[in-house]
Structure formats: C-alpha cells, structure tokens
Amino acid sequence: MKKEFKVIAELLPNNTRVLDVGCGDGALMNLLTKEKNIEVRGLELEKNNVQECIYKGLPVIQGNAETELYQFPDQSFDYVVLSQTLQAFYNPDKVLKELLRIGKSVIVSIPNFGYWKVRTSLLLFGKMPITKTLPNFWYNTPNLHMCTIKDLFNYCDEQNIKIQKVVGINEDKISLIKKSNLEIKNFFSKLGIFLIG
Amino acid sequence: MNKKIEDIKKINVSKPLRLDCGKTINNFPLAYETYGKLNDNKDNAILVFHALTGDQFVAGTNPVTNKEGWWITAVGPGKAIDTNKYFVICANVIGGCMGSWGPSENNKETNQPYGLDFPVITIKDIVRAQESLLDHLGINKLLCATGGSMGGMQLLQFCATFPDKTFSAIPIACSASHSAQNIALNELARQAIMADPVWDNGKYFLKDTQPKNGLAVARMVGHISYLSEQGMQEKFGRKLQEKADYEFSFNADFQVESYLRHQGNAFVERFDANSVLYITRAMDYFDLSKQFKGGLVEVFKNQKTKFLVISFSSDWLYTTKENKDIVIALNAAGADVSYSEIVTDKGHDSFLVNEPEFLKTLKGFINSMHEKFKNEKRI
User: Which candidate from A50, A56, A57 shows the least CB-CB separation from B340?
Assistant: First the structure.
C-alpha cells in the first residue's frame, strides 16, 4: 500500500462518506471500505480503471473531473479526496472550488515541485526534473500546472480556504507542515497532503 | 415441431391490478421462463426485463420460434450472466404476444381477441404485473435485475415502485423519460401499421391475418434506429445484394435494403401488430420523473439498490446523455451508483450483440454483487 494512501486513510474518520476523484483502480477506496467502514464513491476517467473498480464491487462513475463534477450536489460528501491529479487539470483553481462545494472537507495531495531534487535538476542541470513522483518527460507529462507545497499553502491563505492539516512525505518519513516549518518542509517533502475546507 | 403458445410456462395473476388508465384487471396470464437453478440461500436470482420486441426466452432456444434466445450473447452456461451459477427469470410483458395478457389474447366478454378493446397500458402496469411472479417463485429479494432499452425503463420503474426487491440493478442503454425523438420513431412505426388496410382498426384477427406490410415497415424503422451511422456504413456500405450491377428497378439492389426487408419479413412471423401499438405507447408514456413530486432525484431517494448504468457511445436512440441523466439523479439522491460508457460503433444494438467490453463489465459487476449479497445475507 502506498504511504500516501495510509496517510490519507488516517486523516479520514470512520463511517464517513467519501468521494475519491480520480480513484484509479480503486486501491484507496478498497482500503477505506475495508478498514474504516467508509462509504466510498469514485470518479475515474480511464476505462480500464473503471472496469477494475466495477470488478471489485466499488462504485465508480466514468467521467472527467474537469467537466463532470457538477453532477454531485453541494456538501453531499463528508470528504472529497484528490490524489496527485490537481496539477493535471486545465483549471486547477475551478476544480478545487468544485471539490470544496461537494465536500465538507477536501484532501488534496500534490507532487511537490519545491522538493530539493526537483530544484537541483533545474538549477544545476538546466533540465526539467524527472523523479519518482514526476516520472515523465516535458513532452509527454500530463502535468500542466505544477506547484509547490508553499504555493498551495499560500493559495489557500489568499483564497480564505481553511487549512486544517498539511502532511509532508519524504520517502518513509512523515511530518506535519506548519507555517513555521514551511520553508524547510517545502524543500524536503516529495509529496504534500492538504486537509482543507 | 414448435411448441404452441398455449404450452409455455404461465401463471395466472389473480390479484387485482389497477391500471394507470383507471381500469382494474385480475385473473390474467403472465408467461415466463427461467434458466439455471435457484440455490438454497436464494441469493442467486436475476430478473431480466425484455425490450420492445423481446420475449421471455432470453437464452437457449426459443421453443415457439425455434430461434436462439434474444440475449444468447449474455445469458447461458459460462456466459456473462452464467446460468450455471445464477437463476435467471424473464417474463413476457403484458401487452406482448408470447403468452402474457395482450391484445391477441381472448377477451372472455366477446370470445374474440381483444384487439383495440385492450386497455392502453404503461411501463408501470407492465412492471407491477410482474411482481406476482417473484412471489410465485418464492423470491423475496433478487440478487440483480437488469434490462436494456425498454427493459431498462422497466427496471427503473421496478426500482422506483419496489425499492427493496433487488440488491443490485443494471439499467442498460435506456432513459428515465422517453425523448421526443423516440416518441417520433414509435409514432412512425404505429402509423406504418395503421396505414396498412389489412390492419382494419385492429380487427385483422377476424380474418386470421396480420397487417404484414405495415408491420414490416415498422420493424425496418426500428432496425435503422438500432444501428449507428458508422456501423451501418461499415457493415453494408454501398454493397450490392448478390448482383454485379444495378437492376434499374425497385427490387432490393443494395445489401442494406435486403437486410431491412429480411428483418421486416422475419418479424411479422413472430410478432403481433397490435402488440407493437400497445407496447410502443407504453414506452412513450414513460416519464419516471413525472411520477414523483420533486422529479427524478425524489424517485431514487432512500434507494439501497446498487446501480450500474451502462451506455454505448454510438447509441443515438438512448444516448449517453440520457443514461447519464439517470446517473446524475442517482448521485443527487446519494444512491450507490456506478457508470460505464462502452465505446463501440454498434449503436443501440450493442447490448444484444457480442460486445466484449460490455459483457466483461456485466459479468464483473454481477459477480462482485453476488459476493456482497452473500455477505449481507449471512449477517
């Protein structure tokens, strides 16, 4: 199980209703159903993933989060989860607002463009960074809007979105991120997980 | 030797049924067929609703026509709906002509077939008439109910009217309210039948005949709407029917013409013209959102049934958008719903033909639901 999913699962209370946007093959939904008795729903674009979820008996809707979130009513879920997909949208701003409309709270994880290996790749070698969390070349990456943990932190502040908790992941280390340690954690975290709203 | 309609499985529904038109009926026949065996836990029953021109003979060989069952691609031993594992039930709709109470059945008051004395029925009437069958078979709760096209419409109505009767539901290529385009196409079919002088205001049975020409045209209209533009082009193109050049006549020069004529002619051998009128009318009157104050969302409030809605990308009769509207309503009602759009050029017919992606999805969902249903029953 991915470390990220474990962290997300720990952030979610038992017996809640959760929408997993971009749920992939349903790995997180499976975990949440089995271990936390959470009522899950998934939205997924990729056909094979949709089928995978259906085979597992996980409720999934085939659709594009960029254009089809409107079908979910206001505040109809306790939590909405978006795992490492925010940067791939044409309008991450709009999608984020939609997630906050649908969920009472939102969990967003992002590959951190402020991670030191990413920074050095660009700074020292003058090349677009390729890492485990950013495995593609510049010409075939689905990522359109890369951001750093600091960027998303500041964005929430500016937009008056309440930040409940931010967790940074670096290899096996997990740490809480606050305003006081933002600079250093933004440098050493591969992944940022935000609980907002 | 083909079986006669009188010899097929039927129950007599004695419970009075008040139809939407106001009339009350009782003691009417409901013909059905089953495949596979109901297990001791009674957790493996699947109810199939048939489409406009279907009947209860889903799989195997239809004993009346000696043709393959209409859903042979999906139902049978080892198939997506595996009859080695599941107990599959299908009833002929009332208004139909395969043994259930319909316009070709004898009216005890006149000792003649009903013809146009048959009341105009609705999808809701059709579904409510089938409830007694589940009692008869001793099934409290189905593992799954499914149906495509008009079968899907019956299924939605079934879930709305009997919210606790099925653990899961798979509406396929259908709609919660019949569209203007679909009403128009049905009207075309009806007018074709009624324009045939043999129809004689539905009294053709007195001369022991059928308005074959009109009924065949009605079927041709249907067959055009079941295919997609691309599918039709690929299948037929401009290919000529067993000839090297045009005949300079109005015979069927093109393969597509020959196909339509064949479909029309085959249909008149097995289907009753008045049944087409009554069933298409029932489809046109179908608007589930009208039945509940507050619209479609209200229909699905408090639904515990787990839904899988399936649409086909090239279906222009029951479009992806119409199917998605069902998904949106289910979502808004907080129901447990999955949705998959199968990409194919086979049009509305996709659910009846060998479409591997679709059959895989069907199988995967039913098997996973069976596991869940077994667990629920254990608790």
Answer: A50
